[in-house]
Amino acid sequence: MKYLKAFWRVFIREIEIFGSHKSFYRLSLGLPILSFLFFVVLFHNGMPRDMAVAVLDQDDTPLSRQLTRMIDATPSARIAYHITGMAEGERMMKQGKIDAIVYIPDGLEKGIYSATQCDVVAYINDLNLVKNGMLTKDIQTAVTTFSSGIQIQFLMKKGLSEKQAYDQMMPIYFEKHVLFNPYVNYTYYLLSIFLPVMLLIFVVISTIFTIGVELKNGTAGEWYATSGYNILIAVAGKLTPYTVIFFALCMLMNTILFKYVGVPMNGNVPLFFLSGLIFVLAYQAIGVAIVSLLGNLRFALSIGGGYSVLAFTFSGLTFPFLAMDLPLQIFGYIFPLTFYVDIFIDQAMRGAPVIYTVHYVVYMAIFLLLPLILMPRLKRLCTDKKFWGKL
Amino acid sequence: MKYENLKLKWREFTDVFRNEFHYVFHDGGVLLIVIGAILIYATAYSLAYKNEVLRDIPVAVVDESRTPASRDLIRMFDATPNLLIAYKPTSLKEAQNLLYDRKINGIIVIPADYEKKLYRNEKINLSIYTDASYFLMYRQVFYDVTRSVLQSGLEVEWTRFVSSGAQSEQAKALSDPVVLTIKNLYNPYGGYATFIMPAIIMVIIQQTLLIGIGMVGGTWREKRLYQTLIPVGEKRMAVLPIVLGKSAVYMLISLFNLLYVLGVHYYFFGYPQNGAPQTLIAFLIPYVLACIFGGIALSTLFKYRENSLILLLFTSIPFLMLSGASLPRECIPDWLYMIGKIVPSSSGVDGFLRIQTMGATLSEVSKQVITLWVLTGAYFFLACLGMRSILRRIEKKA
């Protein structure tokens, strides 16, 4: 009961501080919501379509023009320019006017009619892997379709029926089953990582800020006294309001992802929500640990900020863990985000049985032990005046 | 008189320069950001992306055929650069569990009648399950499986044409009349670091300048150091020498950072260096100036030391996205992309990539260069305006 009352006193004190300082609103409400909005708008258009492609058509026959039209008709490519030389194409690519050049050499039609294999070359800018991937796929598909059409005509000329011709070509084909992300949507995918990254940045910074500002302003002693000189209660009472706010933001994020954007949710919903709560708590714990260790608001903010921005790279989502060297893979495990992404993939995308996911939740919970180890240190910061008032 | 005036301004400039220089180099927090951050971040990211590409992605093959022909096909899959046949489970169920265990990233099922159909000239239907939850892996698995299947299909067709009496060359043309060769330009191996690192580095340079300069500005306001710029009993210093004096310090720091990045980091990690030195210099000057003046303009708004970090840190990823280097520019709504142009990194990243990775000349990136000079001018004006309003406020109080 005594503890409960002390907790309540710290809790109320924190809410009063929150109400009286602009930085708190900004950090834990305004900016996170603003950043969520930004990413939703940014990804609103979805995948790139109709990227500009130039054609260098030296054949200039009905057949070559047909091929050009077929490339133009694909979703990602648009024939924007007809050029007369490679140098012109290269210059346009450097200027950013086009993303690919399709080169149809002289003699395409003649070659086709005389049954010799013909070559078409596509030069595709690989500066952007996403664009390159889409153009490669679509140009390849267009040329393969074109080639198949010619092949069928050949075979029919040889006296085969259309059905026989179809059976003759493409003897091995395959049914493609895309698992877990049926629309192969890059947008889903990036949005589901950027939003948690934004959330965690603000969790870490606001945790460091709210504790660090007590040190900076020399009010740490007052805070500690309010808790009845119990450092655990002081921390719990101080951070609980933020846990509530950030968990609410986490649920807002889930609403955006699953309801508005339409990311699949195939797994265990309660488990996923629980992970969200632990995700928030884990990053609060890290914030407490950083500010306790460094005992200085500004330095703790720099380190905490740096740490939280790094998390994205090491989550293994955009650039897979498998491709990193072992020390870097291990380094990746100091970020709760890494586990959260694993849980997201397992539960939301794959709908994996719970048993495959539980250990990630446990790993993430281990971060909660961090501040406990550092409580004596934080207690010293709150009692020893020499730590106060530093910028 | 005119000469005297100029001399005074010069003295003010050097005073501010010396003052700021001393200040920055005696403030560990600022140093950590304007110099330390670029070393730490550039190295950490580069190390993570060091291997550039992912090879040998583990997949499972469920071979229901178990014949020499199906084993040939499996060998073909295994020989591709991206695929590694890591498991040969006996059922699809078993394969799926491997997938949940994160042991594999795709499943290929070869039907029981594979060989039989192959010899009977019937169509064969393979089933391919690719895991799209990790995008890069999905793309590579899918690409290699598709290519191997097409390739083995062509071989089968060719054999059939030849056995029905066609010449070798003719059979080739019959099975595949038009062949597409794809040549990737500027990043031939599709390396991830080559793709993303130049953009990240440019954004880091901007962000560290904005945050660092903002931190100094905030500290000055908090500690009331701006008063020192107004010597008692004298007319306040003109704004121009103050802004230029501060900027000169950050120019110097940026010069050092860029020399490190382009001269050491780039060599060490082997990123493409196709830009002519004079083009790079001509491009980076307005970029760095726009960042510095933008930083000074923003810094006049911060009342506390920590504000710049709190308010600017989270913008790093959004700014990187707005540059169109990572997320394709075609994905970004046009109005947002245009608004994004007020951030130096939007044009900075774009132009730098074209020069340093693609080898563009200055005239080929003229759009970006002009934008950066416009930003430099605009931010210089805003920096002077902000500085003037701070000094005026102090004067009024005094």
Record the SSE blueprint.
The complex is a heterodimer of chains A (391) and B (398).
Chain A: H1 2-20, H2 22-42, E1 51-57, H3 62-72, E2 77-82, H4 86-95, E3 100-104, H5 108-113, E4 118-125, H6 129-157, H7 162-168, E5 172-179, H8 186-216, H9 220-226, H10 231-261, H11 269-294, H12 297-310, H13 326-331, H14 336-350, H15 358-366, H16 369-373, H17 375-383
Chain B: H1 2-25, H2 28-48, E1 57-63, H3 68-79, E2 83-87, H4 92-100, E3 106-110, H5 114-119, E4 124-131, H6 135-163, H7 168-175, E5 178-185, H8 192-222, H9 239-269, H10 277-299, H11 307-312, H12 316-322, H13 334-340, H14 344-357, H15 366-397
Parallel strand pairs in B: 1-2, 1-3
Antiparallel strand pairs in B: 3-4
Helix pairs in contact in B: 1-9, 2-8, 2-9, 6-7, 8-9, 8-10, 8-14, 9-10, 9-15, 10-14, 10-15, 14-15
Describe, in plain words, how this protein is organized in 3D:
The complex is a heterodimer of chains A (391) and B (398). Chain A has 17 helices and 5 strands. Chain A folds into 2 domains: 2-44 and 185-387, no CATH class; 51-168, abc type-2 transporter like domain (abc type-2 transporter like fold). Helices cover 65% and strands 9% of the residues of chain A. In chain A, helix 3 links the parallel strand 1 (51-57) and strand 2. Chain A has a 4-stranded mixed beta sheet with strand order 2-1-3-4, sandwiched between helices. By secondary structure, chain A is of the alpha/beta class. Chain A starts with a helix and ends in an 8-residue tail after the last helix. A 4-stranded mixed beta sheet of chain B has the order 2-1-3-4, sandwiched between helices. Chain B is 65% helix and 8% strand. In chain B, strand 1, helix 3 and strand 2 form a beta-alpha-beta unit. Chain B has helices spanning 2-25, 28-48, 68-79, 92-100, 114-119, 135-163, 168-175, 192-222, 239-269, 277-299, 307-312, 316-322, 334-340, 344-357, 366-397, and strands spanning 57-63, 83-87, 106-110, 124-131, 178-185. The two termini of chain B are 29 Å apart. Chain B is of the alpha/beta class and 398 residues long. Chain B has 2 domains: 2-50 and 191-397, no CATH class; 57-175, abc type-2 transporter like domain (abc type-2 transporter like fold, 3-Layer(aba) Sandwich). The radius of gyration of chain B is 30 Å and the shape is elongated. The interface between A and B is large, with 117 and 110 residues. Strand 4 (118-125) of chain A pairs parallel with strand 5 of chain B, so a sheet runs across the interface.
